[in-house]
Amino acid sequence: MYSKILIANRGEIAVRILRACKEMGISTVAVFSEADADALHVALADESLCIGKAEAVDSYLNEERIISAALVSGTQAIHPGYGFLSENAHFAQMCRKNNIAFIGPSVTNMEELSDKAHVKNVMADAGLPVIPGSDILESAEEAVREAERIGYPVMLKARSGGGGRGIRLVNNKEELALSFLTAKAESASAFGDGAVYLEKYIHPARHVEIQVLADEAGHVVCLGERDCSIQKKNQKLVEESPSPAVSGRQRADIFEKVVRAVQAVGYCGAGTLEFLLDASGHFYFMEMNVRLQVEHTVTESLTGLDLVKWQIRVSSGIELNFRQEDIDLGGSSIECRINAKTPGRVEFLHVPGGPFVRFDTYLTVGTQVTPYYDPLLGKMVVYAGSREEALRKIQAALCELVIDGVPNNIEEQIEIVSSEAFVSGKYDLDFFCQ
Fold it and tell me: Is residue 110 part of a domain?
């Protein structure tokens, strides 16, 4: 087991990892930008090192400075959290070249599974149903041919896209011809990779993802599914587990296929397989995220397992001490992401309490929310024995949550979880179009 871990991240996820480490008796090292000098994760860590200016490229995305901070502090392992360098195979390789453990999957897994076009072929070979699509497209002419084979409408996607970015809906040949070069240029600018591919547009559909944990011995456990269909501009806003659209029979069937697929690729660590679920109840694999998800807290709330601690244990070679039959998916957990609309300073903060109410955040009174990073302020998560009770609990918690000084989306979240479509459980990806 590691004795010192550097957290290569900021905000609520850095605080989340720090707390897990403290509970495990592991010393922590925080890195921070000049804009985050007074941040909560810096105050909570045993040691802290400034790694650059406010812009992420000069700090949280600067591989050399983070490696240097780890070496100077005598760190044994680096936890990347999510975003930033969490899916960067080159950074993981740099860690290992410097005898620093990267708390995540192997470099081989990262390289193979981060290619969103290639991974569909890998998972199809392993037995998962996949969305009809193309390989990486070399020209607009090839894109047109592939779209005609797949059938319009199609989704034009960036190979290295993420967080809902790098996605375009294309309805016909004329739109595709216009979109192809623009999409490649935007992808190259945003992700440093201009590769794009096509997928069939499944509509109507729900976005359902399955959380897995896997160890070096080949044990794979599914920790339930999360319904992430409440999205605005491809950004997730509300997640719940279990999905009200998935039956026990469907769940058992897709879990069995997921376990076989994850074992087939030799994956080790925490990972999430993302699917579209169509109106007929058919699953279609989209991609695999080889990191901790923002919404991992929903799964923790439902199962009672600490995913961050298990990431650390598995990375250090410890086998899972539970199996699929040990996982209790009873009850219901709902999470709402609280986002800033503009920068600001927290003037007053009130966080709800009570049994099974959790708010993961980095905010304190006086925290300055800057424009440099993701707008996520925190995640309101509740658990209850039934979905009906969980709905009342999340509505009450949101009504009690107060963040003054930073314009935010609390009111919008109250409207979402109180809406007829969400309460009924019959929502899909068209929620904001209804």
Answer: no
Task: Give the predicted TM-score (pTM) of the model.
Answer: 0.91
Active-site choice (159, 206, 226, 291): 291
Amino acid letter, 215: D
- Examine residue 116 and state whether it is found in any structural domain, yes or no: no
Q: What's the number of domains the chain is made of?
A: 3
Here the CATH number for the domain that contains residue 142 is 3.30.1490.20
Residues 178 and 245 in one domain: no
Q: Contact 14/32 with Cβ under 8 angstroms?
A: no
Look up the domain containing 319 and give its range. Answer: 205-433
Tens-binned pLDDT, residue by residue, of the chain (434 aa): 999 999 999 999 999 999 999 999 999 999 999 999 999 999 999 999 999 999 999 999 999 999 999 999 999 999 999 999 999 999 999 999 999 999 999 999 999 888 776 788 889 988 899 988 888 899 989 999 999 999 999 999 888 766 566 788 999 998 998 888 888 888 777 677 888 999 999 999 999 999 999 999 999 999 999 999 999 988 999 999 999 999 999 999 999 999 999 999 999 999 999 999 999 999 999 899 999 999 999 999 999 999 999 999 999 999 999 999 999 999 999 999 999 999 999 999 999 999 999 999 999 999 999 999 999 999 999 999 999 999 999 999 999 999 999 999 999 999 999 999 999 999 999 999 76
Q: Which two tokens stand for residue 420?
A: 């007829």
Residue 120 falls inside a structural domain = no
Neighbour count for residue 234 (Cβ, 10 Å): 13
- Return the number of other C-beta atoms located less than 10 Å from residue 190's C-beta: 15
CA distance 113 to 136: 15
Last residue of a domain, one of 185, 200, 215: 200
Would residue 291 show up in a list of annotated catalytic residues for this protein? yes
Distances (CA, A) of 412 to 234, 237, 346, 350, 415: 16, 10, 19, 18, 5
- Residue 40: which CATH number? 3.40.50.20
